Amino acid sequence: MELRAEQNFADDDARRNAVAAAATIRQSRTYDDRENGSARSAAFHPGFGDGGERVAMRNFWFAIALCLVPSIAIAQASQRGDANADGTVNAADATFLASHLLGNGPAPIRACLADVNADGILTPADVFRLADYLFAAGTPPPAQPAEVCNGVDDDCDGVIDDGFDKMTDENNCGSCGTVCANAHGTTSCVSGACVPVCAVGYVSCDSNFNNGCETLLNTNPACGPGVQLLAISGDTGATVRTYSGSGEARLSIPINETGNSCIYLSAQVTLTPAAGTDYDLYVSCTNCSGTTRASTSTGTESIVTWHGDSCFGEDSGYTLFIEVRLVSASTTACGNWTVSVIGNVAATTADLCCGDC
């Protein structure tokens, strides 16, 4: 006792409590001896074979160390061994943890702080590992793992997912693991939601901004008949053919001569774009690479074509080649445009189609 007085301990009460706890453990408890990676259960009584003798000796040493060696106060955020979570690792933590394991004290606020040997459970082995560290220059407890975004306090600092701003983090946007991606443009995380900006010709049509702009509209279809619509008469009746689609497209439709009178064969092609899009309309006769007429205004486009009737019983029919060409589209402009073709629009003037109709 005189030696203890000479040491001038600041935490004398904590030491006495730790000694008492260690003595009680030695007399009445068992623990899982995990030194050197082995796991064995040993009674806390001297003379119980190899494991029991080692445990008893360590308990005895622990009690003596608490009485004779000054406390080493170590302050480090979320340090293993800070069982009472006061921000400092010292003998008071050994007392706190031993009391809890004996059933005489409260549980640690954060078990990850008291799990000194990082084996995932709290046992007397944690008390002895802490004593080794504090009083015998033992190996420091393992560091806490780095924090990751997973809804768990990985680094044991009392804050879940700290360091991750889910309102702006493109890799954890709104929730952990929600990645904002956009192979066809740029993206950002704004207020916890992915906000893509599409490259020209791309839109997002799957109701999922997380994967960006996945749908290509300006597909540049090759010259050809494309979608072939059913023929209509250019000189009788008023037959209408319609077709709806999304993105750039090519279509063709025969304009037939069905009457016997000398009436020019005519047709009107109208393009109605989807909301948020701007498409231009191009029409040519005979083939898609022939002379072309275009309507490039904003909104609904319309072109009238007609071709003179020979009036001598020859077939004056022709084929219209139609191209729908994208100009622009907003990010979610995924609706369909509609092309309608109506025959016999009463044109009686000279041939104004494309010069070769």
If you had to describe this structure to a student in words, what would you say it looks like?
This protein folds into 3 domains: 134 residues, no CATH class; 53 residues, no CATH class; 117 residues, Sandwich (Jelly Rolls). 20% of the residues lie in helices and 25% in strands. It is rod-shaped. It has 357 residues and is an alpha+beta fold. The longest helix is centred in the N-terminal third of the chain and has 20 residues. The chain has 6 helices and 16 strands. It starts with a helix and ends in a 14-residue tail after the last strand. The N terminus and C terminus are likely disordered.
Shape assignment? rod-shaped
How many separate structural domains? 3
Structural class given helices, strands, pairing? alpha+beta
- Number of extended strands: 16
Cα distance spanning the termini: 118 Å
Strand and helix order: HHEEHHHHEEEEEEEEEEEEEE
- What is the number of helical segments per DSSP (H or I, 4+ residues)? 6
Please state roughly what percent of the residues sit in beta strands, choosing from under 5%, 5-15%, 15-25%, 25-35%, 35-45% or over 45%. Answer: 15-25%
The helix content is: 10-25%
The biggest beta sheet is recorded as:
6 strands, mixed
- Output mean pLDDT: 80
Supply Rg: 42 Å
Name the poorly predicted regions: 1-11, 24-50, 64-70, 350-357
